[in-house]
Write a structure and sequence with these properties.
Layout (H helix, E strand, L loop, with lengths): L1 E7 L5 H14 L3 E6 L4 H7 L5 H10 L1 E4 L13 H8 L4 E7 L11 E7 L9 E5 L2 E4 L5 H17 L4 E6 L7 H13 L6 E6 H10 L6 E4 L1 H14 L9 E3 L4 E4 L17 H14 L2 H17 L13 H11 L1
Parallel strand pairs: 1-2, 1-3, 3-12, 5-10, 8-9, 8-10
Antiparallel strand pairs: 4-5, 4-11, 6-7, 11-12
Helix pairs in contact: 1-9, 1-11, 5-6, 7-8, 9-10, 10-11
The structure holds 1,4-dihydronicotinamide adenine dinucleotide and magnesium ion.
């Protein structure tokens, strides 16, 4: 079986980790015809557009994409293309598994999956300049999107034999918006009596995760809290170099790491490709290539466990290329 998958290498370390990931996927024996599409800051300079039309055409045609990070200009008119893609294709669920590897990171027993609502909240992009000195950012929460992300989280929990789902919110302050989110999640929770359901306020959750990350299992939350908690959770297990993600919709899916373009290390060939490679493994699961996905995860586990070829972010001396070769050897 030959799959057609759109590959958007992106900016900064994107092309470096994308190449590594392509090699590892190929070594796992999965045949993929990569439809490479350029998007990002480097394309903006050349064409005036962050995302050329051909990227949208390819995603619509093939329905599955692996995407590197894209640099989003801060504070200017350009909307984040990540947000634009998630909204355009209604990729309502952002799924981010965060797991400890032996002897890496500050904790040894983290195994949680964050389900982040991906289409609304303060990311809806509704900001109004009321006067030169006042801006109103509008937070959008709908029952439908809240129910859908909750449904996704509970379905996953049951399927994967997980025991607990925790909703993270700030309904004590945003009584209406987060109140509606909780109301919607509770309705879904009621259908899953076999799963232990709890609710934690987001600021407390930050402390809980730093002190007792092992107590948490599946987390379901709104867009902004999910973004922040994802990076926090990555920090518990060794950093952004390790944490993958998926953006799932009804008709298409885009797989990407949690990390950004890492301008501080881009071009040096030292980025850790694990996060994007594990995102590709999630993509293989989605495509039905579960065995290859599992083999990739196992190879990475073995390499990280041995600690002979860790990348710089994990305290080692390997660069992207040597790490990639060791993973391929393990495969
Ligand atoms: P970042 O995630 O790019 O970097 C944060 C820190 O983690 C840096 O010190 C970086 O070197 C390190 N890091 C990240 N990934 C790594 C890897 N694979 N291996 C080793 N070290 C790694 O976050 P930052 O600096 O806030 O954002 C940079 C740019 O990326 C911004 O323009 C931002 O908008 C964009 N961004 C894009 C995302 C996407 O396309 N999905 C997601 C997050 C940020
Ligand atoms: Mg983020």
């Amino acid at each position: 079986m030959m799959y057609k998958v759109v590959l958007i290498p992106g900016d900064g370390i994107g092309p470096e980790v994308a190449e590594a990931t392509q090699r590892i996927v190929e070594a796992a024996g999965v045949k993929i015809d990569w439809i490479v599409e350029e998007a990002g800051a480097h394309v903006l300079e050349a064409t005036g557009k962050l995302v050329p039309q051909s990227v949208y055409d390819a995603i619509e045609r093939y329905g599955v994409a692996l995407k590197g990070p894209i640099t989003t200009p801060v504070g200017t008119g350009f909307k984040s293309i990540n947000v634009a893609l998630r909204q355009k294709y209604n990729l309502f669920a952002n799924v981010r598994p965060v797991k400890s590897y032996p002897g890496i990171g500050r904790y040894s027993d983290v195994d949680l999956v964050i389900f982040r609502e991906n289409t609304e909240d303060l990311y809806a992009g509704l900001e109004n300049r009321i006067s030169p000195d006042e801006v109103h950012g509008i937070k959008v929460i709908t029952r439908q999107a809240s129910q859908r992300i909750a449904q996704e989280a509970f379905t996953y929990a049951r399927q994967m034999g997980r025991k607990k789902v925790c909703a993270v919110h700030k309904a004590n302050i945003m009584k209406q918006a987060d109140g509606l989110f909780l109301e919607a999640v509770r309705e879904v929770a009621a259908d899953y009596q076999d799963i232990d359901y709890s609710e934690v306020i987001v600021d407390n959750m930050c402390m809980q995760l730093v002190m007792y990350p092992e107590k948490y299992d599946v987390i379901v939350t709104e867009n902004l809290y999910g973004d922040i908690l994802s990076d926090l959770a990555a920090g518990l297990v060794g950093g952004l170099g390790l944490v993958p993600g998926a953006n799932i919709g009804d008709d298409c899916a885009i797989f990407e790491a949690v990390h950004g373009s890492a301008p501080d290390i881009a071009g040096h060939g030292i980025a850790n490709p694990t996060a994007l490679t594990l995102s590709a493994a999630m993509m293989l699961d989605y495509l039905g290539e579960k065995e290859s996905a599992q083999r990739i995860r196992k190879a990475i586990w073995e390499v990280l466990e041995k600690k002979e070829s860790l990348t710089l972010d994990l305290g080692g001396a390997a660069n992207t290329q040597t790490f990639t070769e060791v993973v391929i050897h393990a495969l």
